[in-house]
């Protein structure tokens, strides 16, 4: 259907009330729902389809096979939803001013998929009401085959940084993206055509695992975010040490970015992304010790509605063992030894490897005794 059904003269931008365009209403409502940025674009072939294909072919996706499975739809945003002609793209701040810590900022509170999908559906319901009949469409927040950053740039929200993040001049990059595809003609915003990294290379220099092999190319197989969240099996031994004290996800290439240093935003007081009690203020070692002692029922209770459930308890215990191998002390040998018999072979292997590193470190710190 077209927005002309909302009472506009054919060929003009639809109006819901004299003088107020549907587009203006959508934007006002999006801000009212708590989104920080909103832009409109037409669906169509992704401008960065070739970049995406090259990235997949280079094997940079690692075990994330779902990316290749949905590749046709990712290359063309008209395909995920039959008849989709427009995309409303929103961004939501998750607190770039929060202190850095063992859990990436995005994952400390409620699951952003739930928070944003709910609000995008509310926005969809408003569009239906303004148009006067149901508009076919669907909301996505990392929940389907969409190249969200591609659409966001097209909708004018920002540029692709050398760290591959979508960066906005007003709020930096600590925000989530969401998309509402609609079978409706909306007047698009101009795409964001410039880039503002200049000669800066801070993110490339700071990445602990050299995952950013060159500007704008991220090899997920080396990225701490992939290794601690997406990878289901063993973390390659040579990448365990550079993970340092990162338990879940990584913010380093965003922390160092001047755009975040300058424009990163605080979390609003009532934000659902505020850290859960279990995580708030805890350092990597303490959190790792607690997780290694956790049982499945406790985990399910503590992480209900959290994005951290994605790694499952076995994944978090694997990560916790790596952390203690990196930053633990002789006092952690007991905690690790207790998990040596964990039912998961994955956990047992990482605990054994952490113990051997920790013991070697403790031994090398002992004073030398003359024989
Ligand atoms: C797979 C994935 C990952 C993978 C791979 C990330 C990657 N850079 O490819 C892993 C697990 C490593 C990951 C990590 C993170 N992710 Co992630 N991830 C995704 C997902 C599901 C798909 C991304 C994808 O298709 N990657 C393939 C590459 C080729 O595409 P791309 O990363 O989107 O890059 C595009 C542009 O940057 C551009 N581009 C990049 N370089 C260049 C260079 C040139 C010359 C050109 C022309 C274009 C170009 O083209 C690409 C294709 O459109 C999206 C959600 C979605 N459906 O889009 C979230 C998403 C990208 N992730 C997000 C977040 C928050 C993160 C983390 C910050 C989480 C964390 N703290 O640990 C990190 C950041 C790491 C980083 N520097 O990117 C947000 C990013 C928001 C933003 N402001 O950009 C998204 C959009 C989820 C969301 N709905 O909010 N993620
Ligand atoms: S998220 Fe961390 S590991 Fe991944 S590219 Fe950025 S700095 Fe490197
Ligand atoms: S750190 Fe520098 S190079 Fe990297 S994304 Fe930010 S501005 Fe661009």
Could you give a quick summary of the protein structure above?
The protein is of the alpha+beta class. The chain has 16 helices and ten strands.
Overview of this protein structure:
The chain has 371 residues and is α+β, with helices and mostly antiparallel strands. The protein folds into two domains: 3-182, no CATH class; 209-249 and 276-362, no CATH class. 38% of the residues lie in helices and 11% in strands. The chain has 16 helices and ten strands. It has helices spanning 22-32, 49-57, 65-69, 71-75, 112-131, 148-154, 202-206, 224-230, 237-240, 252-255, 258-263, 284-292, 296-302, 312-327, 333-338, 345-365, and strands spanning 15-17, 20-21, 37-42, 86-93, 137-140, 159-160, 166-167, 175-182, 212-214, 217-218. The protein has a four-stranded antiparallel beta sheet with strand order 3-4-8-5, sandwiched between helices. It has a two-stranded antiparallel sheet with strand order 1-2. It is elongated. The model is unreliable at 1-14 (pLDDT under 50). Bound molecules: cobalamin (B12) and iron/sulfur cluster (2 copies).
What is the strand and helix layout of this fold?
Layout: E1 15-17, E2 20-21, H1 22-32, E3 37-42, H2 49-57, H3 65-69, H4 71-75, E4 86-93, H5 112-131, E5 137-140, H6 148-154, E6 159-160, E7 166-167, E8 175-182, H7 202-206, E9 212-214, E10 217-218, H8 224-230, H9 237-240, H10 252-255, H11 258-263, H12 284-292, H13 296-302, H14 312-327, H15 333-338, H16 345-365
Antiparallel strand pairs: 1-2, 3-4, 4-8, 5-8, 6-7, 9-10
Helix pairs in contact: 1-5, 12-14, 14-16
């Amino acid at each position: 259907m077209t927005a002309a059904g909302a009472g506009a003269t054919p060929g003009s931008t639809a109006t819901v009330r004299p003088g107020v365009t549907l587009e203006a209403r959508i934007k006002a409502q999006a801000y009212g729902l708590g989104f920080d940025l909103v832009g409109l674009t037409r669906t169509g072939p992704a401008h960065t389809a070739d970049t995406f294909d090259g990235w997949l072919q280079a094997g940079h996706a690692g075990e994330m096979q779902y990316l290749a499975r949905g590749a046709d739809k990712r290359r063309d945003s008209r395909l995920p939803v039959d008849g989709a002609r427009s995309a409303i793209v929103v961004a939501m701040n998750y607190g770039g001013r929060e202190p850095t810590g063992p859990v990436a900022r995005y994952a400390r509170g409620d699951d952003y998929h739930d928070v944003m999908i709910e609000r995008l559906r509310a926005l969809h319901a408003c569009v239906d009401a303004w148009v006067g009949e149901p508009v076919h469409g669907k909301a996505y927040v990392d929940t389907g085959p969409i190249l969200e950053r591609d659409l966001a740039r097209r909708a004018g929200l920002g540029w692709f940084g050398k760290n591959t993040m979508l960066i906005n001049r007003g709020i930096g990059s600590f925000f989530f993206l969401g998309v509402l595809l609609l079978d409706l003609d909306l007047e698009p915003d101009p795409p964001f055509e410039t880039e503002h990294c200049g000669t800066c290379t801070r993110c490339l220099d700071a990445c602990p695992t050299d995952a950013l092999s060159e500007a704008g190319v991220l090899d997920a197989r080396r990225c701490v975010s992939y290794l601690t969240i997406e990878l289901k099996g063993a973390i390659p031994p040579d990448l365990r040490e550079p993970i340092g004290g990162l338990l879940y996800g990584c913010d380093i290439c965003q922390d160092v970015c001047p755009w975040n240093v300058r424009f990163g935003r605080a979390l609003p007081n009532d934000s659902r992304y505020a850290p859960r009690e279990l995580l708030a203020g805890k350092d990597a070692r303490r959190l790792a010790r607690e997780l290694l002692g956790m049982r499945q029922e406790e985990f399910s209770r503590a992480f209900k509605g959290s994005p951290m459930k994605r790694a499952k308890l076995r994944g978090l215990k694997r990560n916790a063992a790596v952390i203690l191998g990196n930053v633990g002390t002789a006092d952690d040998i007991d905690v690790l030894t207790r998990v040596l018999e964990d039912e998961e072979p994955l956990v047992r292997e990482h605990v054994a490897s952490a113990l051997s590193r920790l013991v070697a470190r403790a031994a090398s710190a002992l004073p030398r005794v003359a024989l």
